[in-house]
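User: Fold both of these, please.

Assistant: Here is the first one.
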Amino acid sequence: MKQIVQIEYIEVAPKEEYEAIIKTVMKQCFQEEQLMDSNLYVSVTLTNPDNIQKMNKEYRNIDKATDVLSFPMFEKEEIASLLLQNNNVIEDVLGDIVISIQQVENQAKEYGHSFNRELAYMIVHGFYHLMGYDHINDEDKRKMRPKEEKVLQELKLIRI
């Protein structure tokens, strides 16, 4: 099976549990968006609040920790175009997702669901940002949220 996700750790201990969740969720995302035959992959970095805050400040000029950051390599329209032009033979990173594991733990407790569900949501959420979706206004939310929920429902990781 081809590699669709590359996982890195910055000041967070590697765990097989994290990797299993990330790989399962990313596979479902790729299937949902019909990217399995592409040569795209996603880079996922797991880190701590200090590092994600530094990245948030550097890249978004927001000096505070956050739960997830996404850095897409393509505009939404470019993805479909590239896949068509290259007959799914693109060899490139779709983008980077950075997640604060501590924030995942905090939010799981806050929202009353499992760590696995919260980490899965962060992966799905980050993935759809890479695909060009957003949630800044209500119209954008109406497009992005159902896609996120569908992936999570397929994996039986629904909200409690």
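And the second sequence with its predicted structure:
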Amino acid sequence: MPSIRPHEATRVLIVDDDPQVRSVLSDVFQLTGYIPRVAENGREGLERFKVERFPLVLTDIKMPIMDGIEFFANVRALDSDTAVIILTGVGEMKTAIETLKAGASDFIMKPVNLDELVIAAERALERRRLILENRDYQRHLERRVEESTRQLSQAFQELQETYRTTLEALGSALDTRDIETQAHSHRVWGYAVLLTRDLGIKGQELTNIEHGVLLHDIGKIGIPDRILLKPGPLTEEEWREMKRHPEIGRRLLSRIKFLEGAIPTVYHHHERYDGSGYPVGLKGEEIPLGARIFSVVDAFDAMTFDRPYSKAIPLDSAFTEIKRCIGTHFDPKVAEAFLGLPPNLLEEIRTKNPD
């Protein structure tokens, strides 16, 4: 007769209204290393199961008070992982098959072949073990995936913050090269973020515009100091050289994968809504949205911050000038949205120390 090793001893509940059957089955399972418990009907068996939650149950079908079918349904409701073997007579074959469809592990025909019964019990328990192990594995895997996802998300956020900080530093470095526009990049970035979010722009598009605004003048790296820092008006030739900085910026950023999305803003930040800008002379909505946003915030910063060649004007006066240039310099929708921003937030950005 099959047996299981002592350390694998498993509790089994035997439910049958025939005391002789209960006794024989109890002895057989005890001899093969199980810990048997018995009940004489479904109700008694259910009460025992509620207390002990057996991993393996054997039940007859025809019993008084509560039959095996009702007992089986109650056990499944309490613990769907319990292995249940149905003991059935010839006339109950259809009912036994229905229990298999409902989740029973097996059925054994009466009179019971004891060797066959013990083998069926071991097979049912092995199946139960594999199901539980697989479920535990899936839960462990889900926890690992969740933890890995959380760590990856955190790392990505930290990387994004590092990118942003690095770009801010680079923008500030560009500003210090041109002393006339010191901290300019930081301020226009602040205005642009405020305006872009007000326009409902989110996700990667928002990030691309932020990067483009911060690095709008990166192309000035390629402009000679004799032109960039010239105190007086530029000659026509010098002006042509200065107007190359958007193209230089485009070429620089095209070599950096994560900054490719910033190129439209950098390359077109001197375009005008009426088509009179450079480097391409785009008109209206042909101009990338980031460049149209930059055009407004850049003009606002130029008017409201002291420069060596001009004094800051009040915010109200700057708003009036922006209104005047709607449709020529500025996209009407973008300009109107900017004019609707809270003045106190604009003033906070204007006066904030970037350090």
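The longest strand covers residues 83-88.
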